[in-house]
UniProtKB/TrEMBL annotation:
This is Inositol polyphosphate-related phosphatase domain-containing protein. Belongs to the inositol polyphosphate 5-phosphatase family. GO terms for biological process: phosphatidylinositol dephosphorylation; response to abscisic acid; response to auxin; response to jasmonic acid; response to salt stress. It comes from the Eukaryota.
């Protein structure tokens, strides 16, 4: 767990580059998404600046108190908890989460846009470390969400003891063939969030984290062969079919971001109430629609380690499985 009791103004702060959320390398090349292995245990238990637990889940418009409580385990060795939800039903999910985590953490901030919601929790007494907290939202498509469920993003900027973080939870366009629409929505959201009054929060962040139902699918494979590969635990070959990684390689989205290796099973689409993939007449191809990606500003003086990246198969009230990550930050050493 990070040193929550010893947060101070970081002396390591250097002047930040004014780089945007989406960028190319200094030589003009595309970096794509860097895939990293998972560190089984957080190495920074004594030297970390901050440890963050991040959860994304498409609730499919259904409320299960039991499943909401399962999102937060009893092992809460993190300073901050970020929960991004999509297709949230009209009920008080916030109250359930707060009651579940009340013993160790308190609600620091939240933002909603119809069925999109995000909550930020911090360890008890952590409120005093908040120097600035801003929220924003950006709708895309569907006449601003008037027709059908609103797509888009809600976001939160927080300066927590001098560490500047942006969290974005989003829900992008559905269906396999709408790749370019998803790319466009990502670009629009990236450029629009926190753009009011000319305050470039997303540009000055030390770390930016995107979580949500990005809706990128597997492409070039039908449902039965895909399911057979999943049963045989051949996820590495399936990853080559993932639209998000393909589009990032082209420099279209999430350039320079990092993601853990996709070793868990695709998180969509399940029969509600089970861990069996879609048996409707559509027999949808399983896909990793639900993702968590992060980007550390090179000039921030920080390094990040991803000590877990997993889906929660025990949650079954939705046609999506939640995805959970544990991210720890530390000051970069001179050797690094």
């Amino acid at each position: 767990m990070g040193n929550c009791n010893s947060f101070a103004v970081p002396k390591w702060r250097s002047e930040l580059h004014n780089s945007g959320v989406v960028s190319v390398g200094e030589d003009g090349t595309h970096e794509g998404i860097k895939t990293i292995p998972i560190q089984k245990a957080c190495e920074f238990t004594t030297s970390s600046v901050l440890c963050v637990c991040i959860i994304t889940w498409n609730m499919n418009g259904k409320m299960s108190v039991e499943d909401v409580t399962k999102l937060v385990s009893s092992n809460r060795k993190f300073d901050l908890l970020v929960v991004g939800l999509q297709e949230v039903p009209k009920c008080d999910v916030s109250q359930v989460l707060q009651e579940t985590i009340a013993e160790t953490h308190v609600l620091l901030g939240q933002k909603s846009m119809q069925s999109l919601q995000m909550f930020l929790f911090g360890a008890r007494s952590s409120e005093k470390y908040i120097r600035e907290l801003k929220v924003d939202k950006q709708a895309v498509g569907g006449f601003g969400g008037i027709i059908g469920r609103k797509k888009g993003a809600v976001a939160m900027y927080i300066n927590f003891s001098g560490i500047r973080m942006v969290f974005v939870t989003c829900h992008l366009a559905a269906h396999e063939h709408k790749v370019e629409k998803r790319n466009s929505e990502f670009q629009h959201i990236s450029q629009s969030l926190f753009s009011k009054n000319g305050i470039p929060y997303t540009q000055s962040a030390d770390i930016t984290v995107w979580l949500g139902d990005l809706n990128y699918r597997l492409q070039g494979i039908s449902s039965i062969p895909a399911r057979k590969m999943i049963e045989e635990n051949r996820q590495s070959k399936l990853r080559r079919k993932d639209q998000l990684l393909q589009e990032a390689d082209k420099g279209e989205v999430f350039n320079g971001y990092t993601e853990g290796t996709l070793k868990f099973k695709p998180t969509y689409k399940y029969n509600v109430g089970s861990s069996s993939y879609d048996t409707s007449h559509k027999i949808r191809v399983p896909s990793w629609t639900d993702r968590i990606l992060f980007k550390v500003n090179h000039s921030s003086g920080l390094d990040a380690i991803l000590s877990s990246y997993e889906s929660l198969d025990c949650v079954s009230s939705s046609d999506h499985k939640p995805v959970k990550a544990h991210l720890c930050l530390k000051v970069r050493s001179a050797d690094d």
